[in-house]
Amino acid sequence: MNAVDSSTDIYQSLGLTGREAEQASTNELTQKDFMKLLVTELTHQDPTKPMDNKELASQISQFSVVSGIDQLNDSFADFSSSMISDQALQASGLVGRDVLVPVNSALLETGGTIRGVVGLDGSAADVRVLVQDGSGALVREIDLGTQPKGEVSFTWDGQRDDGSYAPPGQYLITAQASRDGSQIAPYVLTQASVDSVSVGGEGQGLALNLRGLGAIAFKDVAEIR
Questions:
Q1: Nearest to 12 by CA among 35, 37, 32, 31
Q2: This prediction's pTM
Q3: Are 142 and 106 in contact (CB under 8 A)?
Q4: Residue 154 and residue 114: Cα distance in Å, rounded?
Q5: Last residue of some domain: 91, 122, 156?
Q6: Rounded CA gap, 10 and 44, in Å?
């Protein structure tokens, strides 16, 4: 009996040539393909030089590891997809609700208000919220006085400092305060309504589409109201 001494001969005995043989030799072989190749190799081996048991065990072990990793990756992919679907379902319940987000821009709608919070890492005096229009002009300055450490809410009804009302549109919201004679810049969270929820591509996660602000990552939401 003639021995098959190369993998090429084995592939040819299975009717695989050229690109097919190249594909069959990759780690993308299925378990069925692997067993078929192994049986063929054993059938055509040189009787005077049979395959060593350790070599046989090594081949099976290597394929099992690769196959196991592939199955594990598939399991993680399925788990990740399931998690995203569950999160999307939960997040869909936020449509129509308001959230606080770390964005210094807010939309003033006709007859509406802009709400948010100013965050302080310690007590501070002369805490103020500054509202600026698109040109950078100061529209309103809201005096919150002296505040302890923590977050303090604010509301702007669209009224300017001169008593007139600002037109609907986007406004920049910042804050300032003083501590021990020095100016500090507290953080600001603005409130916005959730219009819809988007499921991003791989690694992107969920995004909330906020009225007047656009998309923001669900993980960046500071509070749901």
A1: 37
A2: 0.61
A3: no
A4: 8
A5: 91
A6: 8
- How far, rounded to the nearest angstrom, does the alpha carbon of residue 99 sit from its chain's CA centroid? 18
Residues forming a β-bridge with 170:
107
Tell me the one-letter amino acid at 191.
Q
My answer on whether 163 and 128 are in the same domain is yes
Task: Please state, rounded to an integer, the average pLDDT across all residues of the chain.
Answer: 78
pLDDT of residue 146: 97
Q: Read off the tokens for 97.
A: 């609700």
Residue 10 binned pLDDT confidence (cut-offs 50, 70, 90)? very low
Does residue 47 have a pLDDT over 50? yes
- Residue 174, domain extent: 98-224
* Statement to judge: residues 84 and 25 lie in one domain: yes
Tell me: pLDDT of 22 over 70.
no
pLDDT tens-digit series, residues 137-193: 999 999 999 999 999 999 999 999 999 999 999 999 999 999 999 999 999 999 999
Same domain, 55 and 126: no
Q: Say what the pLDDT of residue 14 is.
A: 46
Q: For residues 86 and 107, state if they share a domain.
A: no
DSSP for 57-91, written as a single string: HHHHHHHHHHHHHHHHHHHHHHHHHHHHHHHHHHH
**Number of domains comprising the chain:** 2
Dihedral, CA of residue 67, residue 73, residue 78 and residue 82, to nearest 10: 160
